[in-house]
Amino acid sequence: MKATFCTRREFCALFLFVAVYVLILLLRHMDILEFQPKFNSTIIMPRVSTHPKEIRSFCTFQPLSPEDALEERLILDSTAWPETPHLPAPVSLEQTSDPAHSTFTILPGRKGGQWHVGDQLEVMIQISDFQGHPKKSGGDFLLASLHNRKLQAGVAGQVVDHLNGSYSTVFSLLWEGDAQVEVTLVHPGEAISVLKRVNREQPDRIYFKSLFRSGSLSETTFCNVCLRPTQQPLCNYTDLRTGEPWFCYKPKKLSCDARINHFRAGYRGKILNANEEKLFQSGVNLNIYIQASGPASVTVLPQKEGQLKEKSSIVTSGPSGYYYQGVWRALGSITVREFSTSAISQCLKGKVVHMYGDSTMRQWFEYLNAVLPGLNAFDLHSPKKVGPYMSLDYANNILMTFRCHGPPLRFTPMATRELRYIANELDGLIGSPNTVVVFTIWAHFGTFPMEIYIRRLQSIRRAVVRLLDRAPGTLVVIRTTNPRYLNLFVSLTNSDWFSLQHGKVLRAMFKGLNVHLIDAWEMTLAHHLPHDIHPPPPIIRNMINHLLSYICPQNGS
Q: Domains along the chain?
């Protein structure tokens, strides 16, 4: 009997299709297996990613699961910034957004020009270029807030881009008395285009190094998430558990295992041409107030009888809170109350508080250390401003720790043994109703493509879910990003635009989980004090009160 492999044409075609498909899968998995590190200090040769959707010029990563890849794409789409029409090179400053020629206008109230507590104040903004011509496109980065300095009151507004040179913002009117509108052009849209380009093309503009040492021999090499391809082999320090990538060029005479520290080494200067630098001029088009075309303030009258229900609906879809008499009043489900020193000690009694993140989280640790007399810091001989730190109030059984997140970290030299990823630290916690986890992560990611930040948060989220699964009573609180002082250098490394985008991703990533957010963005924007990456003490005090209100909520809140 003659052996037959295919007896019908359609079966042969189907078999051929399946065989080719399996071959493609095998080839793809061979590529994945080639990249998987066998141990923490594998030497690999640099290669450039050829993924069709890859926008990074020399970054390479392990593939995501289909679910994570889809989420990454959806988040990138949802946070996409409006494109500014391409201007012929070199960019002419005259055609870009000019705050001096731009104005905002308070729209008339619907009640005969009167506003009451609970109403909404609508403001229109028109952006013009340096020649006074109204812009015809969007993409500018604007911030808006409402203040009363005398009452120490303030609230942030949400700016809507109409993509035609005009913008609008709506404020919830939440106090009686004067309310002064402030609108700021942080960056013209043309500058945003530059920021997006440098993150894509120069993610290594802040660069890092590590010292390698064995006996009397030592070498220092460059390190980063993304290293430019050379003939020099790489040391692969990709974390085995989280998959977080980190690489160093291999020393010429030492092994990858001889790495002893990590530190920020410097900044690649002159990454913009002269015309591009004009888009980031302090006092001209960088973080500049826009003037009103008419009155810049309104007088808010007392709330009308029967208006409470209307106000509640406004608040639900509006800001996360506001200041009044210098005190932050949250508008969500939590009632924020003020805590005295003794009340803080009582609230934290029997608690273990673990803090993770950057210097903006270390600031919280330092604040509590300073205000609680019974909290004594252990000398762990840690580098100043790096940590890790630990404090104990023995009488009240309070333990508080701080540890910075893993690389990228723009800190002074720190031992590689102290480089810990938040996800791994969370996996090491038992968790309990007396355990509080607080973290933030954002300020050190401003020079990288957003995919790097998304993947880090996906890793942390998985660890948070695992923690809450095994210890549902554990309290998890996340501090968001906040605006800061800007100049040319800061704009290119830590612009508020980067922070705004990171904040959007952070909220999207943890939406729906049993975690709590402290809105550092609005708490800084709504305050009258100047912006700083480390907000001043009055703002920090309110943030700590918010945190403590989650730990020790009032009955019924």
A: 93-193+279-311 (2.60.40.10), 327-551 (3.40.50.1110)
pLDDT in tens, 182-229: 999 999 999 999 999 999 999 999 999 999 999 999 999 999 999 998
Closest by CA position to 476, among listed 461, 494, 498, 492: 461
User: Which residue, among 358, 371, 435, 372, has the nearest Cα to 402 in the 3D structure?
Assistant: 358
Q: Which residues pair with 161 in a beta bridge?
A: 167
DSSP letters, 395-459, are TTTEEEEEEE-SSS---S-EEGGG---HHHHHHT----TTEEEEE---TT-TTS-HHHHHHHHHH
Give the mean model confidence (pLDDT) for residues 374-401: 91
Q: Are 478 and 510 in contact (CB under 8 A)?
A: yes
DSSP 164-207: SSEEEEEEE--SSEEEEEEEEEEE-HHHHHHHHHHHHH-TTSEE
Closest C-alpha to 228, from 79, 454, 47:
47
Angle at 272 between CA 267 and CA 278, to 5 degrees: 120
Q: Are 471 and 437 in contact (CB under 8 A)?
A: no
CA distance 84 to 88: 12
Each residue's pLDDT tens digit, 319-343: 999 999 999 999 988 999 999 999 9
Predicted TM-score (pTM) of this structure:
0.88
> Of how many residues is the chain composed?
557
| Cα distance between residue 207 and residue 209, in whole Å | 7
DSSP bridge pairs for 327: 324
Token code pair at residue 371: 């205000």
